[in-house]
Design brief:
A: 12 helices; 14 strands; 38% helix; B: mainly alpha
Chain lengths: 324, 272
Amino acid sequence: MTAMIEACGLTKRYGKTVALDGLDLTADAGQVVAVLGPNGAGKTTFVRTVATLLRADAGTLVVAGYDARKEPAAVRRVIGLAGQFAAIEPAMTGRENLEMVARLFGQSRRTATASAAAVLDQLGLASDGDRLARTYSGGMRRRLDLGASLVGAPRLLLLDEPTTGLDPRSRIELWDGIRALVGAGTDVLLTTQYLDEADHLASQVVIIDHGKAVATGSPADLKRQIGGSIVELHVRRSEDLAKVAEMLGRLGDGDAQIDASTRRVSVRVHSGGEALMSALRSLEGSGVELADIGARQPNLDEVFLALTAWPADDHGGAMAASAA
Amino acid sequence: MTTIALDRPEASRGPAGLTRSTVTVTRRALLRYVRTPQLIVLATVQMSVFFLIYRYMFGGAIHIAGMSYVDYLVPGFIATGVLFMGIGTATAMAEDLEQGFVDRLRSLPIPRSAVLVARATADTTILAWSTAFTAAVAFAVGFSLHGSALDGLAAFGLVVLFGFAFEWVFITMGLFAGNAQAAQGMGMIVFPFAFVSSAYVLVSSMPSWLRVFAEHQPLTYMVDAVRALTLGPHAQALLGHTSTYYVTRSLLWALAIIVVSLPIAVWKYRRG
Protein backbone atom coordinates (compact mmCIF):
# COMPACT_ATOMS: atom_id res chain seq x y z
CA MET A 1 0.00 0.00 0.00
CA THR A 2 1.19 3.48 -0.74
CA ALA A 3 0.95 6.17 1.90
CA MET A 4 -1.41 9.08 1.32
CA ILE A 5 0.05 11.02 4.22
CA GLU A 6 3.45 10.49 5.73
CA ALA A 7 4.37 12.65 8.68
CA CYS A 8 7.72 12.26 10.34
CA GLY A 9 8.73 14.13 13.47
CA LEU A 10 6.18 16.86 12.74
CA THR A 11 6.51 19.69 15.24
CA LYS A 12 4.53 22.88 15.62
CA ARG A 13 4.75 25.34 18.50
CA TYR A 14 2.65 28.35 19.34
CA GLY A 15 4.82 30.32 21.69
CA LYS A 16 5.35 27.96 24.61
CA THR A 17 2.49 25.65 23.70
CA VAL A 18 3.55 22.58 21.76
CA ALA A 19 0.70 21.59 19.44
CA LEU A 20 2.57 18.89 17.54
CA ASP A 21 5.43 17.25 19.34
CA GLY A 22 7.31 15.16 16.79
CA LEU A 23 4.23 13.47 15.40
CA ASP A 24 4.87 10.35 13.31
CA LEU A 25 1.88 9.23 11.31
CA THR A 26 1.35 7.21 8.19
CA ALA A 27 -2.07 7.14 6.55
CA ASP A 28 -2.41 4.51 3.87
CA ALA A 29 -4.19 5.25 0.62
CA GLY A 30 -7.52 3.72 -0.22
CA GLN A 31 -9.25 4.06 3.12
CA VAL A 32 -10.64 6.30 5.82
CA VAL A 33 -8.16 7.18 8.50
CA ALA A 34 -9.43 8.67 11.75
CA VAL A 35 -7.27 10.79 13.99
CA LEU A 36 -8.74 10.41 17.42
CA GLY A 37 -7.83 12.56 20.38
CA PRO A 38 -9.12 14.82 23.13
CA ASN A 39 -9.38 18.59 22.78
CA GLY A 40 -5.96 20.13 22.49
CA ALA A 41 -4.30 16.90 21.35
CA GLY A 42 -3.13 18.55 18.14
CA LYS A 43 -5.75 17.14 15.75
CA THR A 44 -6.73 20.45 14.20
CA THR A 45 -3.12 21.61 13.97
CA PHE A 46 -2.29 18.39 12.14
CA VAL A 47 -5.14 18.77 9.64
CA ARG A 48 -4.27 22.42 9.05
CA THR A 49 -0.67 21.44 8.41
CA VAL A 50 -1.73 18.75 5.94
CA ALA A 51 -4.01 21.31 4.25
CA THR A 52 -0.99 23.65 3.94
CA LEU A 53 -2.69 26.29 6.07
CA LEU A 54 0.13 25.96 8.57
CA ARG A 55 3.80 25.30 8.19
CA ALA A 56 5.40 22.89 10.60
CA ASP A 57 8.40 24.15 12.56
CA ALA A 58 10.22 20.87 12.09
CA GLY A 59 9.79 17.42 10.60
CA THR A 60 8.64 16.31 7.19
CA LEU A 61 5.20 15.93 5.76
CA VAL A 62 4.44 14.27 2.45
CA VAL A 63 0.87 14.45 1.15
CA ALA A 64 -0.04 12.39 -1.91
CA GLY A 65 3.61 12.28 -2.81
CA TYR A 66 4.16 16.05 -2.52
CA ASP A 67 6.27 17.71 0.13
CA ALA A 68 3.81 19.98 1.95
CA ARG A 69 6.50 22.52 2.74
CA LYS A 70 8.13 22.73 -0.68
CA GLU A 71 5.13 22.12 -2.95
CA PRO A 72 2.09 23.45 -1.10
CA ALA A 73 0.39 24.45 -4.37
CA ALA A 74 0.58 20.85 -5.62
CA VAL A 75 -0.90 19.61 -2.35
CA ARG A 76 -3.78 22.09 -2.64
CA ARG A 77 -4.68 20.66 -6.03
CA VAL A 78 -5.32 17.20 -4.63
CA ILE A 79 -7.01 17.95 -1.31
CA GLY A 80 -10.44 19.08 -0.20
CA LEU A 81 -10.86 20.57 3.25
CA ALA A 82 -13.89 20.83 5.50
CA GLY A 83 -12.91 22.57 8.69
CA GLN A 84 -14.64 22.79 12.03
CA PHE A 85 -17.01 25.50 10.84
CA ALA A 86 -19.36 25.20 7.91
CA ALA A 87 -17.38 27.51 5.63
CA ILE A 88 -20.17 28.20 3.21
CA GLU A 89 -21.69 31.46 2.02
CA PRO A 90 -25.13 31.80 3.61
CA ALA A 91 -26.24 34.36 1.04
CA MET A 92 -25.72 31.94 -1.84
CA THR A 93 -27.71 28.84 -2.70
CA GLY A 94 -26.30 25.41 -2.08
CA ARG A 95 -25.71 25.05 -5.80
CA GLU A 96 -23.99 28.44 -6.12
CA ASN A 97 -21.70 27.60 -3.21
CA LEU A 98 -20.58 24.40 -4.89
CA GLU A 99 -20.22 25.99 -8.30
CA MET A 100 -18.06 28.72 -6.82
CA VAL A 101 -15.63 26.23 -5.31
CA ALA A 102 -15.64 24.14 -8.50
CA ARG A 103 -14.75 27.24 -10.52
CA LEU A 104 -11.92 28.00 -8.11
CA PHE A 105 -10.64 24.49 -8.74
CA GLY A 106 -10.26 25.54 -12.35
CA GLN A 107 -13.29 23.73 -13.75
CA SER A 108 -15.02 25.17 -16.76
CA ARG A 109 -18.48 26.66 -16.25
CA ARG A 110 -20.10 23.55 -17.69
CA THR A 111 -18.05 21.09 -15.66
CA ALA A 112 -18.66 23.17 -12.53
CA THR A 113 -22.42 23.03 -13.07
CA ALA A 114 -22.27 19.28 -13.59
CA SER A 115 -20.07 18.54 -10.60
CA ALA A 116 -22.17 20.79 -8.32
CA ALA A 117 -25.31 18.92 -9.38
CA ALA A 118 -23.63 15.55 -8.85
CA VAL A 119 -22.42 16.49 -5.37
CA LEU A 120 -25.84 17.87 -4.35
CA ASP A 121 -27.33 14.60 -5.45
CA GLN A 122 -24.74 12.56 -3.65
CA LEU A 123 -25.29 14.35 -0.35
CA GLY A 124 -29.06 14.25 -0.57
CA LEU A 125 -29.35 18.01 -1.06
CA ALA A 126 -30.66 17.99 -4.61
CA SER A 127 -34.13 19.21 -3.69
CA ASP A 128 -32.71 22.04 -1.55
CA GLY A 129 -29.96 23.02 -3.95
CA ASP A 130 -31.63 26.24 -5.08
CA ARG A 131 -32.43 27.56 -1.64
CA LEU A 132 -30.14 30.07 0.05
CA ALA A 133 -27.77 28.25 2.38
CA ARG A 134 -28.81 30.49 5.28
CA THR A 135 -32.16 28.69 5.31
CA TYR A 136 -30.44 25.32 5.83
CA SER A 137 -30.43 23.42 9.12
CA GLY A 138 -27.14 22.85 10.91
CA GLY A 139 -26.85 19.34 9.52
CA MET A 140 -27.55 20.49 5.96
CA ARG A 141 -24.90 23.20 6.27
CA ARG A 142 -22.33 20.66 7.34
CA ARG A 143 -23.29 18.41 4.44
CA LEU A 144 -23.02 21.33 2.04
CA ASP A 145 -19.64 22.15 3.52
CA LEU A 146 -18.60 18.55 2.98
CA GLY A 147 -19.87 18.94 -0.58
CA ALA A 148 -17.74 22.04 -1.09
CA SER A 149 -14.67 20.07 -0.11
CA LEU A 150 -15.67 17.38 -2.60
CA VAL A 151 -16.64 19.31 -5.65
CA GLY A 152 -13.04 19.63 -6.81
CA ALA A 153 -12.90 15.81 -6.92
CA PRO A 154 -9.99 15.68 -4.46
CA ARG A 155 -7.90 12.57 -4.03
CA LEU A 156 -7.70 13.28 -0.33
CA LEU A 157 -10.50 14.70 1.74
CA LEU A 158 -9.63 16.32 5.08
CA LEU A 159 -12.45 16.56 7.59
CA ASP A 160 -11.81 18.29 10.88
CA GLU A 161 -14.36 17.12 13.45
CA PRO A 162 -17.06 16.89 10.79
CA THR A 163 -19.90 16.02 13.16
CA THR A 164 -19.11 18.12 16.22
CA GLY A 165 -22.27 19.91 17.33
CA LEU A 166 -24.64 17.88 15.16
CA ASP A 167 -27.69 16.07 16.44
CA PRO A 168 -27.57 12.25 16.21
CA ARG A 169 -29.64 12.05 13.04
CA SER A 170 -27.61 14.63 11.12
CA ARG A 171 -24.51 12.85 12.32
CA ILE A 172 -25.62 9.58 10.81
CA GLU A 173 -26.58 11.30 7.54
CA LEU A 174 -23.13 12.82 7.35
CA TRP A 175 -21.54 9.44 8.05
CA ASP A 176 -23.51 7.98 5.14
CA GLY A 177 -22.21 10.78 2.92
CA ILE A 178 -18.63 10.10 3.96
CA ARG A 179 -18.98 6.35 3.42
CA ALA A 180 -20.36 6.90 -0.07
CA LEU A 181 -17.24 8.87 -0.92
CA VAL A 182 -14.86 6.17 -0.01
CA GLY A 183 -16.82 3.91 -2.33
CA ALA A 184 -16.11 6.46 -5.07
CA GLY A 185 -12.37 6.20 -4.46
CA THR A 186 -11.58 9.21 -2.31
CA ASP A 187 -9.21 8.82 0.61
CA VAL A 188 -10.43 10.45 3.78
CA LEU A 189 -8.58 11.73 6.81
CA LEU A 190 -10.91 12.81 9.57
CA THR A 191 -10.41 13.96 13.11
CA THR A 192 -12.83 13.20 15.86
CA GLN A 193 -13.25 13.13 19.59
CA TYR A 194 -15.73 10.32 19.34
CA LEU A 195 -14.64 6.74 19.55
CA ASP A 196 -17.81 5.50 17.89
CA GLU A 197 -17.30 7.85 14.94
CA ALA A 198 -13.85 6.43 14.33
CA ASP A 199 -15.32 2.98 14.78
CA HIS A 200 -18.09 3.54 12.23
CA LEU A 201 -16.04 5.17 9.54
CA ALA A 202 -12.40 4.34 9.72
CA SER A 203 -10.37 1.30 8.87
CA GLN A 204 -7.30 2.86 10.46
CA VAL A 205 -7.34 4.85 13.69
CA VAL A 206 -4.49 6.94 14.98
CA ILE A 207 -4.84 8.07 18.56
CA ILE A 208 -2.93 11.21 19.35
CA ASP A 209 -2.34 13.01 22.58
CA HIS A 210 -0.17 16.00 23.41
CA GLY A 211 0.90 16.22 19.80
CA LYS A 212 2.19 12.65 19.56
CA ALA A 213 0.76 9.45 18.10
CA VAL A 214 -0.05 7.20 21.04
CA ALA A 215 -1.38 4.21 19.14
CA THR A 216 -2.28 3.15 15.62
CA GLY A 217 -4.38 0.28 14.42
CA SER A 218 -7.71 -0.86 13.13
CA PRO A 219 -10.69 -0.14 15.40
CA ALA A 220 -10.79 -3.82 16.27
CA ASP A 221 -7.11 -3.83 17.29
CA LEU A 222 -7.57 -0.81 19.46
CA LYS A 223 -10.71 -2.10 21.06
CA ARG A 224 -8.93 -5.27 21.93
CA GLN A 225 -6.27 -3.17 23.51
CA ILE A 226 -8.48 -0.73 25.32
CA GLY A 227 -11.38 -3.10 25.77
CA GLY A 228 -12.79 -4.32 29.03
CA SER A 229 -14.83 -2.30 31.43
CA ILE A 230 -14.51 0.21 34.16
CA VAL A 231 -15.64 -0.59 37.66
CA GLU A 232 -16.53 2.57 39.51
CA LEU A 233 -17.28 3.05 43.16
CA HIS A 234 -18.83 6.07 44.81
CA VAL A 235 -18.22 6.24 48.56
CA ARG A 236 -19.93 8.36 51.18
CA ARG A 237 -16.85 9.23 53.25
CA SER A 238 -13.66 10.68 51.81
CA GLU A 239 -11.54 8.76 54.32
CA ASP A 240 -12.58 5.50 52.63
CA LEU A 241 -11.12 6.56 49.27
CA ALA A 242 -7.58 5.29 49.82
CA LYS A 243 -8.75 1.96 51.20
CA VAL A 244 -11.14 1.39 48.31
CA ALA A 245 -8.50 2.40 45.77
CA GLU A 246 -6.04 -0.09 47.20
CA MET A 247 -8.69 -2.81 47.07
CA LEU A 248 -9.80 -2.04 43.52
CA GLY A 249 -6.18 -1.86 42.42
CA ARG A 250 -5.87 -5.56 43.18
CA LEU A 251 -8.80 -6.36 40.89
CA GLY A 252 -7.90 -4.17 37.96
CA ASP A 253 -5.35 -3.99 35.19
CA GLY A 254 -3.74 -0.86 36.53
CA ASP A 255 -3.81 1.51 39.43
CA ALA A 256 -7.22 2.74 40.50
CA GLN A 257 -8.01 6.37 39.74
CA ILE A 258 -9.29 8.53 42.58
CA ASP A 259 -11.48 11.55 42.02
CA ALA A 260 -11.55 13.09 45.47
CA SER A 261 -13.95 15.89 44.58
CA THR A 262 -16.76 13.49 43.70
CA ARG A 263 -15.52 10.71 46.05
CA ARG A 264 -15.28 8.24 43.19
CA VAL A 265 -12.72 5.51 42.56
CA SER A 266 -12.48 3.70 39.24
CA VAL A 267 -10.35 0.97 37.73
CA ARG A 268 -10.04 -0.74 34.37
CA VAL A 269 -10.86 -4.45 34.40
CA HIS A 270 -11.06 -7.21 31.81
CA SER A 271 -14.48 -8.41 32.76
CA GLY A 272 -16.89 -5.96 34.35
CA GLY A 273 -19.23 -8.55 35.82
CA GLU A 274 -16.60 -10.69 37.53
CA ALA A 275 -14.73 -7.70 38.86
CA LEU A 276 -17.93 -6.23 40.21
CA MET A 277 -18.70 -9.43 42.10
CA SER A 278 -15.20 -9.58 43.58
CA ALA A 279 -15.41 -5.95 44.54
CA LEU A 280 -18.68 -6.51 46.35
CA ARG A 281 -17.26 -9.52 48.14
CA SER A 282 -14.21 -7.64 49.38
CA LEU A 283 -16.32 -4.70 50.42
CA GLU A 284 -18.49 -6.86 52.61
CA GLY A 285 -17.59 -6.25 56.24
CA SER A 286 -14.93 -3.69 55.30
CA GLY A 287 -16.88 -0.87 56.91
CA VAL A 288 -16.84 1.20 53.71
CA GLU A 289 -20.10 3.08 53.19
CA LEU A 290 -21.06 2.75 49.54
CA ALA A 291 -23.14 5.33 47.73
CA ASP A 292 -23.08 3.49 44.42
CA ILE A 293 -21.14 0.86 42.49
CA GLY A 294 -21.28 -0.19 38.86
CA ALA A 295 -19.50 -1.47 35.79
CA ARG A 296 -19.56 0.45 32.48
CA GLN A 297 -17.79 0.87 29.13
CA PRO A 298 -14.68 3.02 29.27
CA ASN A 299 -15.13 6.57 28.05
CA LEU A 300 -12.62 8.30 25.86
CA ASP A 301 -10.75 9.84 28.79
CA GLU A 302 -10.15 6.40 30.21
CA VAL A 303 -9.06 5.08 26.86
CA PHE A 304 -6.42 7.76 26.68
CA LEU A 305 -5.45 7.16 30.23
CA ALA A 306 -5.09 3.49 29.48
CA LEU A 307 -3.00 4.11 26.41
CA THR A 308 -0.79 6.74 27.90
CA ALA A 309 -0.35 4.79 31.14
CA TRP A 310 1.35 1.93 29.29
CA PRO A 311 4.65 3.15 27.99
CA ALA A 312 6.62 0.49 26.13
CA ASP A 313 5.73 -2.51 28.24
CA ASP A 314 4.18 -5.78 27.09
CA HIS A 315 0.70 -4.37 26.58
CA GLY A 316 1.38 -1.23 24.59
CA GLY A 317 4.73 -2.03 23.04
CA ALA A 318 3.43 -3.53 19.84
CA MET A 319 0.93 -0.75 19.27
CA ALA A 320 3.39 2.01 20.01
CA ALA A 321 5.87 0.44 17.64
CA SER A 322 3.34 0.27 14.83
CA ALA A 323 2.58 3.95 15.35
CA ALA A 324 6.18 4.90 14.70
CA MET B 1 -27.42 8.34 -2.47
CA THR B 2 -25.70 7.62 -5.69
CA THR B 3 -22.06 7.21 -6.23
CA ILE B 4 -20.61 9.72 -8.59
CA ALA B 5 -17.69 9.45 -10.86
CA LEU B 6 -16.28 12.92 -11.35
CA ASP B 7 -13.58 12.93 -13.94
CA ARG B 8 -10.27 13.48 -12.32
CA PRO B 9 -7.85 14.37 -15.07
CA GLU B 10 -5.36 16.39 -13.12
CA ALA B 11 -3.46 17.66 -16.08
CA SER B 12 -6.52 19.34 -17.58
CA ARG B 13 -7.45 20.75 -14.21
CA GLY B 14 -5.09 23.66 -14.03
CA PRO B 15 -5.76 25.90 -11.06
CA ALA B 16 -7.88 29.00 -11.56
CA GLY B 17 -5.79 32.03 -12.42
CA LEU B 18 -5.73 35.35 -10.58
CA THR B 19 -8.45 36.94 -12.71
CA ARG B 20 -10.93 34.11 -12.50
CA SER B 21 -10.35 33.55 -8.78
CA THR B 22 -10.71 37.25 -8.06
CA VAL B 23 -13.90 37.54 -10.11
CA THR B 24 -15.38 34.43 -8.48
CA VAL B 25 -14.61 35.52 -4.93
CA THR B 26 -15.67 39.13 -5.62
CA ARG B 27 -18.98 37.89 -6.91
CA ARG B 28 -19.55 36.03 -3.67
CA ALA B 29 -18.82 39.14 -1.58
CA LEU B 30 -21.16 41.28 -3.71
CA LEU B 31 -23.94 38.67 -3.60
CA ARG B 32 -23.61 38.67 0.17
CA TYR B 33 -24.28 42.43 0.20
CA VAL B 34 -27.09 42.35 -2.31
CA ARG B 35 -28.89 39.38 -0.78
CA THR B 36 -28.56 40.39 2.84
CA PRO B 37 -31.16 43.12 3.36
CA GLN B 38 -29.46 44.49 6.49
CA LEU B 39 -26.17 44.90 4.63
CA ILE B 40 -27.45 46.48 1.46
CA VAL B 41 -29.87 48.82 3.23
CA LEU B 42 -27.13 49.88 5.60
CA ALA B 43 -24.65 50.39 2.78
CA THR B 44 -27.19 52.44 0.86
CA VAL B 45 -28.72 54.72 3.42
CA GLN B 46 -26.36 54.87 6.39
CA MET B 47 -24.11 57.50 4.89
CA SER B 48 -26.97 59.65 3.63
CA VAL B 49 -28.85 59.53 6.94
CA PHE B 50 -25.79 60.83 8.77
CA PHE B 51 -25.30 63.36 6.03
CA LEU B 52 -28.83 64.75 6.52
CA ILE B 53 -28.30 64.95 10.29
CA TYR B 54 -25.04 66.86 9.87
CA ARG B 55 -26.42 69.08 7.18
CA TYR B 56 -29.42 70.22 9.23
CA MET B 57 -27.88 70.06 12.70
CA PHE B 58 -24.60 71.85 12.01
CA GLY B 59 -25.95 73.80 9.05
CA GLY B 60 -27.45 76.44 11.30
CA ALA B 61 -24.58 76.57 13.78
CA ILE B 62 -21.48 76.59 11.61
CA HIS B 63 -20.83 79.49 9.28
CA ILE B 64 -18.13 79.32 6.68
CA ALA B 65 -17.22 82.72 5.28
CA GLY B 66 -17.91 82.95 1.59
CA MET B 67 -19.96 79.77 1.05
CA SER B 68 -23.03 77.92 2.29
CA TYR B 69 -22.42 75.18 4.85
CA VAL B 70 -24.03 72.54 2.66
CA ASP B 71 -21.51 73.26 -0.10
CA TYR B 72 -18.68 73.14 2.43
CA LEU B 73 -19.93 69.98 4.11
CA VAL B 74 -20.74 67.71 1.16
CA PRO B 75 -17.19 67.17 -0.17
CA GLY B 76 -15.87 66.76 3.37
CA PHE B 77 -18.60 64.39 4.40
CA ILE B 78 -18.33 62.22 1.32
CA ALA B 79 -14.54 62.02 1.35
CA THR B 80 -14.44 61.00 5.03
CA GLY B 81 -17.37 58.66 4.49
CA VAL B 82 -14.97 56.15 2.96
CA LEU B 83 -13.43 55.70 6.40
CA PHE B 84 -16.72 54.75 7.98
CA MET B 85 -17.48 52.36 5.14
CA GLY B 86 -14.08 50.79 5.81
CA ILE B 87 -15.12 49.59 9.24
CA GLY B 88 -17.49 47.23 7.40
CA THR B 89 -14.54 45.89 5.40
CA ALA B 90 -12.51 45.16 8.52
CA THR B 91 -15.50 43.40 10.05
CA ALA B 92 -16.25 41.36 6.92
CA MET B 93 -12.61 40.28 6.58
CA ALA B 94 -12.48 39.23 10.23
CA GLU B 95 -15.76 37.37 9.86
CA ASP B 96 -14.44 35.42 6.88
CA LEU B 97 -11.45 34.42 8.99
CA GLU B 98 -13.53 33.58 12.03
CA GLN B 99 -16.06 31.47 10.15
CA GLY B 100 -13.52 29.39 8.32
CA PHE B 101 -14.24 30.81 4.88
CA VAL B 102 -10.68 32.04 4.51
CA ASP B 103 -9.39 28.59 5.49
CA ARG B 104 -11.41 27.03 2.71
CA LEU B 105 -10.07 29.54 0.18
CA ARG B 106 -6.52 29.14 1.43
CA SER B 107 -6.78 25.39 0.95
CA LEU B 108 -7.77 25.84 -2.70
CA PRO B 109 -5.29 25.95 -5.56
CA ILE B 110 -5.79 29.67 -6.21
CA PRO B 111 -3.41 32.61 -5.90
CA ARG B 112 -3.55 33.74 -2.29
CA SER B 113 -3.78 37.42 -3.20
CA ALA B 114 -7.10 36.73 -5.01
CA VAL B 115 -9.02 36.66 -1.73
CA LEU B 116 -7.72 40.06 -0.65
CA VAL B 117 -8.07 41.68 -4.05
CA ALA B 118 -11.64 40.35 -4.19
CA ARG B 119 -12.47 41.86 -0.81
CA ALA B 120 -11.02 45.23 -1.83
CA THR B 121 -12.83 45.16 -5.20
CA ALA B 122 -16.22 44.19 -3.80
CA ASP B 123 -16.09 46.68 -0.97
CA THR B 124 -14.91 49.49 -3.24
CA THR B 125 -17.89 48.74 -5.51
CA ILE B 126 -20.28 49.02 -2.57
CA LEU B 127 -18.51 52.19 -1.49
CA ALA B 128 -18.97 53.71 -4.96
CA TRP B 129 -22.66 52.87 -4.80
CA SER B 130 -23.05 54.36 -1.34
CA THR B 131 -21.13 57.49 -2.35
CA ALA B 132 -23.25 57.98 -5.45
CA PHE B 133 -26.44 57.62 -3.43
CA THR B 134 -25.26 60.12 -0.81
CA ALA B 135 -24.24 62.54 -3.55
CA ALA B 136 -27.72 62.31 -5.05
CA VAL B 137 -29.25 63.07 -1.65
CA ALA B 138 -26.81 65.97 -1.28
CA PHE B 139 -27.93 67.48 -4.57
CA ALA B 140 -31.54 67.11 -3.43
CA VAL B 141 -30.95 69.15 -0.28
CA GLY B 142 -29.20 72.12 -1.78
CA PHE B 143 -25.68 71.12 -2.77
CA SER B 144 -24.51 72.34 -6.15
CA LEU B 145 -21.37 71.96 -8.21
CA HIS B 146 -19.49 75.19 -8.78
CA GLY B 147 -16.91 73.64 -11.01
CA SER B 148 -17.44 71.75 -14.27
CA ALA B 149 -19.34 68.46 -14.44
CA LEU B 150 -16.08 66.80 -15.46
CA ASP B 151 -14.42 68.08 -12.30
CA GLY B 152 -17.39 66.72 -10.36
CA LEU B 153 -16.86 63.27 -11.91
CA ALA B 154 -13.14 63.50 -11.19
CA ALA B 155 -14.00 64.25 -7.57
CA PHE B 156 -16.21 61.16 -7.46
CA GLY B 157 -13.42 59.06 -8.96
CA LEU B 158 -11.00 60.45 -6.40
CA VAL B 159 -13.29 59.50 -3.51
CA VAL B 160 -13.60 55.95 -4.84
CA LEU B 161 -9.82 55.77 -5.20
CA PHE B 162 -9.31 56.98 -1.62
CA GLY B 163 -11.81 54.34 -0.60
CA PHE B 164 -9.81 51.66 -2.42
CA ALA B 165 -6.61 52.81 -0.74
CA PHE B 166 -8.16 52.74 2.71
CA GLU B 167 -9.71 49.32 2.04
CA TRP B 168 -6.19 47.89 2.38
CA VAL B 169 -5.79 49.45 5.79
CA PHE B 170 -9.10 47.95 6.89
CA ILE B 171 -8.36 44.55 5.34
CA THR B 172 -5.11 44.53 7.32
CA MET B 173 -7.03 45.52 10.44
CA GLY B 174 -9.54 42.70 9.90
CA LEU B 175 -6.75 40.16 9.40
CA PHE B 176 -5.03 41.20 12.61
CA ALA B 177 -8.25 41.45 14.60
CA GLY B 178 -9.28 37.87 13.81
CA ASN B 179 -12.86 38.33 14.97
CA ALA B 180 -15.62 40.69 14.00
CA GLN B 181 -15.99 42.39 17.35
CA ALA B 182 -12.33 43.18 17.67
CA ALA B 183 -12.30 44.43 14.08
CA GLN B 184 -15.15 46.78 14.83
CA GLY B 185 -13.34 48.02 17.91
CA MET B 186 -10.15 48.65 15.92
CA GLY B 187 -12.27 50.47 13.35
CA MET B 188 -12.92 53.20 15.91
CA ILE B 189 -9.51 54.59 14.95
CA VAL B 190 -11.32 56.35 12.08
CA PHE B 191 -12.97 58.88 14.39
CA PRO B 192 -9.97 61.13 15.07
CA PHE B 193 -9.03 61.01 11.40
CA ALA B 194 -12.52 61.89 10.23
CA PHE B 195 -13.23 64.61 12.78
CA VAL B 196 -9.84 66.23 13.24
CA SER B 197 -9.73 67.24 9.60
CA SER B 198 -11.14 69.96 7.40
CA ALA B 199 -14.20 67.79 6.68
CA TYR B 200 -16.80 69.40 8.92
CA VAL B 201 -15.25 72.62 10.22
CA LEU B 202 -12.44 74.92 9.18
CA VAL B 203 -9.11 73.77 10.49
CA SER B 204 -8.36 77.39 11.40
CA SER B 205 -11.09 77.19 14.06
CA MET B 206 -9.23 74.45 15.98
CA PRO B 207 -6.75 75.01 18.82
CA SER B 208 -3.20 75.10 17.53
CA TRP B 209 -2.12 71.66 18.83
CA LEU B 210 -5.04 70.02 17.08
CA ARG B 211 -4.50 72.10 13.97
CA VAL B 212 -1.01 70.64 13.49
CA PHE B 213 -2.51 67.16 13.16
CA ALA B 214 -5.52 68.30 11.14
CA GLU B 215 -3.42 70.17 8.61
CA HIS B 216 -1.02 67.34 7.92
CA GLN B 217 -3.10 64.21 7.97
CA PRO B 218 -4.18 62.57 4.70
CA LEU B 219 -7.91 63.15 5.11
CA THR B 220 -7.54 66.91 5.04
CA TYR B 221 -5.71 66.73 1.70
CA MET B 222 -8.32 64.37 0.34
CA VAL B 223 -11.22 66.49 1.54
CA ASP B 224 -9.67 69.64 0.15
CA ALA B 225 -8.97 67.95 -3.18
CA VAL B 226 -12.64 66.98 -3.50
CA ARG B 227 -13.65 70.45 -2.34
CA ALA B 228 -11.40 72.22 -4.82
CA LEU B 229 -12.77 70.12 -7.69
CA THR B 230 -16.46 70.39 -6.83
CA LEU B 231 -16.60 73.98 -5.62
CA GLY B 232 -14.55 75.59 -8.36
CA PRO B 233 -12.22 78.62 -8.41
CA HIS B 234 -14.05 80.34 -5.61
CA ALA B 235 -13.30 77.58 -3.14
CA GLN B 236 -9.76 77.26 -4.38
CA ALA B 237 -9.22 80.91 -3.46
CA LEU B 238 -10.65 80.21 -0.03
CA LEU B 239 -8.52 77.10 0.49
CA GLY B 240 -5.36 78.84 -0.63
CA HIS B 241 -4.19 76.48 -3.36
CA THR B 242 -5.33 75.20 -6.76
CA SER B 243 -7.10 71.88 -7.23
CA THR B 244 -3.92 70.44 -8.80
CA TYR B 245 -2.06 71.10 -5.54
CA TYR B 246 -4.58 69.18 -3.49
CA VAL B 247 -5.22 66.43 -6.02
CA THR B 248 -1.53 65.55 -6.41
CA ARG B 249 -0.95 65.56 -2.67
CA SER B 250 -4.02 63.44 -1.95
CA LEU B 251 -3.03 60.99 -4.70
CA LEU B 252 0.42 60.68 -3.18
CA TRP B 253 -1.17 59.95 0.18
CA ALA B 254 -3.46 57.32 -1.36
CA LEU B 255 -0.46 55.71 -3.05
CA ALA B 256 1.53 55.77 0.18
CA ILE B 257 -1.34 54.13 2.06
CA ILE B 258 -1.53 51.32 -0.51
CA VAL B 259 2.23 50.86 -0.66
CA VAL B 260 2.42 50.45 3.11
CA SER B 261 -0.74 48.52 3.92
CA LEU B 262 -1.05 46.14 0.96
CA PRO B 263 2.20 44.26 1.62
CA ILE B 264 1.36 44.03 5.33
CA ALA B 265 -2.07 42.60 4.47
CA VAL B 266 -0.57 40.05 2.06
CA TRP B 267 2.13 39.11 4.55
CA LYS B 268 -0.40 38.60 7.34
CA TYR B 269 -2.72 36.62 5.07
CA ARG B 270 0.03 34.29 3.91
CA ARG B 271 1.21 33.77 7.45
CA GLY B 272 -2.27 32.80 8.57
